[in-house]
Structure prediction request, 554 residues.
Amino acid sequence: MTKKWWHDKVAYQIYPKSFYDSNGDGIGDIPGIISKLDYLKDLGADILWLSPCYASPLADQGYDISDYYKIDPRFGTMEDMDRLIAEAKKRDMYILMDLVVNHCSDEHEWFQKACQDPDGKYGRFFYLRDKKDGELPTNWRSYFGGPVWDDLPGTDKQYLHVFHKKQPDLNWENPEVREEIYKNINWWLDKGLGGFRIDAIINIKKALPFRSYEADREDGLCSVEAMLKDAEGIGEFLREMRDRTFRKYDAFSVGEVFHEKPEEIQDFIGEDGYFSSMFDFNETVFGSSEKGWYDAKPITPDDYKKCCFEAQRRVGNTGFLSNVIENHDEPRGVCRYIPEGDVNDKSKKMLAALNLMLRGIPFIYQGQELGMENMPFSSIEEIDDISSKHEYQVALDAGLTPEDALNRIAGFSRDNARTPMQWSDEANAGFTTGTPWLKVNPNYTSINAASQMDDPDSVRSFYKKLIALRKDPEYKETIVYGDLEPLWETRRNLMAYCRQGDRLLFVIGNYRKYDQSVTLPYPYKKVLLNNYPDIDEEGKTISLYGYQVLILEM
Prediction:
């Protein structure tokens, strides 16, 4: 494998709207991010991924872009972005932006021109079909509910949107569309970006010609994923994009890739892959149901272990996964992957170590390093996320009471991760001097950055130690490039694996609140990290405390 500059890096995702508000309007902004760069550098973050801050009506929180060349005034100015890139560079940090090119906003100039002349140049930038009374072009259901087809304003046509109706899909079959996309990517890379996180990219290739599929719910529609499974040839688009953009700049690219086939791993992230890396979503999609969130199966410690090891085996040494516990589209990982009632500092540290020591590039989401938790929602009116609102209605339609529907979907809501970053125990968690755009989690008085910064036993301090271990010259080669071998896979509530390189490291976590004993295959040489002050051991037998995690050099 050719070594790349990003292989040994630790990434940190920022959701700008909720990170830090510098001007008191209740919305996080780019100057706020700049003011916190030293906090992130102290943690050990190298790559900062910003969720969208382009000009947008925010129908889907910025993933509906109305101008790819402008910063939304809510977040600042282009001068602010230039300053962020420059200040990050001073600290040897890299800025990633979101690349959202499956769709744009219906307020984008291209779509407005398509409405004015659907048979002209810009009509071909989208998927348009003649409107037929009482009949849709296909029966696909959008990710946010309802048909993927809506009327093109002022015309006798309909347009395709696999996400929100304000997010019309771009027609990647049209080379003029691709040229515009590549032009924009290169414009940003010329500014000094380190690369991009690539949003919803599997959706750019549709199965042609369009056709309907068997309905999977009583609404007569089918998941759009049924069509995507039939789509072939996406590699031609991705290869062209790579060669025309990322490769020319030695830029880092990480794809949001779902449902890839085992034989496609090499194509996506191999030596000559379309992307530098792609996210491991094995854990996040576990237990999902075609019926909706309300029917999802909870994940157990053994399920989590199995998902991690399956992903590691699938990729092997072909390339690098980007490993996540949570992100802006998921609930807080400590509330999802740690059994209810067991969420505490010890279990949060265990989950962190088991994840960050996997082979791949760790992505930490804002607040994860503090152990931020899910929001206790008391009403659907407290939820802003359009996806959560849709799933709430799906649960009601299935016969659940409003109370049960809220309880079922609350744990999956994207708003859990979008509540303001908890900086201190001051008003609004120190996020803003104004009224925050989304309610602050009430536990900010006990979970916040200020209280953890100088506490050597805090969750943040443990993350800092983990990151420092990954960068330690003695162990970096093994942690970054070494093989991963799962151990004791059938043992319940225990997750253990070796990292083998020029050193041999042993990672073991007691994934339950009760003690359990293990006998090591051979004696260890050194304790590199422990979330307890001591080890209960006798010879090669260790009695692990509840949620104890150890990283040992053998």
Q: What stands out?
A: The chain has a mean pLDDT of 97.
